[in-house]
């Protein structure tokens, strides 16, 4: 029940989820903020990943729609990638549920710092669309591999998925960063839905809290996507780095008490 969370914790969580949605729609990595934020609010560890998927899925959908009003890809290219993302994410979500619940906190401690540092240190690239330098077959094979591997990671853990998608499609397929970000949103949404189904079947999510935060995340994603299309990307990574790791320190402190 929502009543089990204090008003102070819900307000703080709402601010952080909005900020995470804003950041995620621009550069990905919103989960670096929301996962420790949910723990900080008092959410049980076994409900953490599923609840985060529920709240982030709708925001990702809104960002995808906003991007695809400006940029689009042909259906015969996108549909196989979507199906691959769904399969990879479902397998990843099933895999993480095989681990004991306390392991999730240790995964946060192990994976968040290097993920945040990796995102922070990425240089500006992907200014131009160079995909024409690759054959269609080459791009499709690389795209399928990217879709499966990163979607598996998304179902298994998740933070940074949007960024990893965007960077991979830019680096391996030659898309501009804005094109890659647009493509990453539809795949990220697909992988989120698949993982969410797995978490729902296993009863590993807080439905009321997730739906409440979904509305907050939608607002953050819409504002962020609009900002990105006008101002460009990677403008607020230092903020992401500071907030994610500050919350992580708080979680570690709580575990040591």
Kindly report how far apart the N and C termini lie.
27 Å
Taking Cα atoms only, what radius of gyration do you get, to the nearest Å? 17 Å
Global geometry: globular
> What is the N-to-C order of secondary-structure elements (H for helix, E for strand)?
HHHHHHHHHH
The percent range for strand residues is: under 5%
Count the E strands: 0
- Please tell me the total number of domains: 1
Indicate the structural class. mainly alpha
Mean pLDDT: 81
Could you list the spans in which at least 5 consecutive residues all have pLDDT below 50? none
Largest sheet, described in full? none
Helix content: over 70%
Instruction: Output the number of helix runs.
Output: 10
List keywords for this structure.
mainly alpha, 0% strand
Give an overview in words:
With 257 residues, the protein is an all-alpha fold. The chain has one domain (2-256). It is 77% helix and 0% strand. The longest helix has 25 residues, at 177-201. The radius of gyration is 17 Å and the shape is globular.
């Amino acid at each position: 029940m929502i009543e089990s969370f204090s008003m102070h914790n819900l307000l703080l969580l709402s601010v952080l989820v909005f900020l995470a949605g804003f950041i995620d729609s621009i550069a990905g990595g919103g989960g670096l903020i929301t996962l420790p934020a949910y723990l900080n609010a008092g959410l049980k560890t076994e409900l953490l990943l599923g609840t985060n998927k529920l709240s982030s899925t709708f925001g990702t959908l809104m960002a995808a729609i906003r991007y695809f009003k400006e940029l689009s890809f042909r259906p015969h290219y996108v549909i196989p990638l979507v199906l691959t993302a769904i399969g990879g994410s479902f397998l990843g979500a099933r895999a993480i549920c095989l681990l004991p619940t306390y392991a999730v906190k240790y995964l946060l401690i192990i994976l968040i710092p290097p993920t945040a540092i990796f995102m922070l240190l990425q240089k500006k690239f992907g200014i131009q669309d160079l995909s024409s330098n690759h054959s269609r077959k080459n791009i499709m094979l690389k795209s399928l591999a990217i879709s499966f591997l990163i979607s598996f990671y998304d179902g298994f853990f998740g933070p940074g998925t949007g960024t990893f998608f965007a960077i991979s499609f830019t680096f391996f397929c030659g898309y501009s960063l804005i094109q890659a970000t647009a493509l990453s949103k539809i795949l990220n949404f697909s992988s989120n839905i698949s993982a969410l189904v797995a978490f729902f079947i296993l009863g590993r999510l807080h439905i009321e809290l997730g739906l409440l935060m979904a509305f907050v995340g939608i607002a953050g994603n819409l504002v962020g996507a609009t900002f990105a299309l006008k101002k460009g990307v990677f403008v607020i990574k230092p903020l992401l780095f500071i907030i994610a790791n500050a919350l992580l320190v708080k979680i570690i402190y709580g575990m040591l008490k």
